[in-house]
């Protein structure tokens, strides 16, 4: 441990030396959700907030999903699509786009040459318009959703939709590599000029299936 770090930690310990210790549960008095909604209202709120973040939102039935994904890839002009190892193969039955496997040895340059990526998700938060990926087999490693410029994320409705962040956290394993996505990647400079695609996909398409 460096001398500077030890000095800082020593100051923290001295500052806390007289603080009362309380090893009991932390009181969490905040609201778990804001208002009561039906399932339909919760899904509608998710779609509204996703669109507000400039994600492109689509709705379909399970039977329509393969043809919808095929159409989205065709409209994008995608010649290749990254496929997580556990993705349902039937989802891509509506397209003949070349599949690229999620390989441990893939470099950032190789991933950047892939046109699109299709994944599932772990949970979607209606109040914040957020998708959470946890590295499960149908989502793959974090980097495959951060490098390609076009991400199609499939959300099962209503099973994977919750109202609030506290409800989402109850479903998630904190030791997994969680990626929280609220719209396509975007940032802005001091002049508030918005630039998209800096830290992830420039285009995020969300398919609500149910």
Automatic annotation (TrEMBL):
Pfam families: LUD_dom (PF02589). InterPro entries: FTHF_cligase-like_sf (IPR024185), LUD_dom (IPR003741), NagB/RpiA_transferase-like (IPR037171). SUPFAM superfamilies: NagB/RpiA/CoA transferase-like. Residues 46-209 form the LUD domain. This is Lactate utilization protein B/C.
């Amino acid at each position: 441990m460096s001398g500077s770090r030890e000095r800082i930690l020593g100051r923290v310990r001295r500052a806390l030396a007289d603080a009362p210790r309380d090893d009991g549960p932390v009181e969490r008095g905040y609201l778990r959700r804001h208002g009561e909604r039906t399932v339909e209202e919760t899904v509608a709120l998710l779609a509204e907030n996703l669109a507000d973040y400039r994600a492109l939102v689509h709705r379909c039935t399970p039977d329509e999903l393969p043809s919808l994904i095929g159409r989205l890839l065709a409209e994008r002009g995608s010649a290749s699509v990254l496929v997580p190892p556990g993705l349902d193969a039937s989802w891509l039955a509506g397209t003949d786009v070349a599949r690229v496997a999620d390989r441990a040895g893939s470099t950032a340059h190789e991933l950047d040459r892939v046109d699109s990526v299709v994944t599932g998700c772990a949970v979607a938060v209606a109040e914040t318009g957020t998708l959470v990926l946890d590295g499960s087999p149908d989502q793959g490693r974090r980097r495959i959703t951060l490098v390609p410029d076009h991400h199609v994320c499939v959300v099962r409705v209503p099973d994977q939709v919750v109202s609030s962040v506290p409800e989402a956290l109850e479903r998630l394993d904190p030791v997994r590599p969680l990626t929280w996505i609220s719209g396509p990647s975007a940032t802005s400079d001091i002049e508030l000029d918005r630039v998209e695609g800096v830290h992830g996909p420039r285009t995020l398409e969300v398919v609500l299936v149910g």
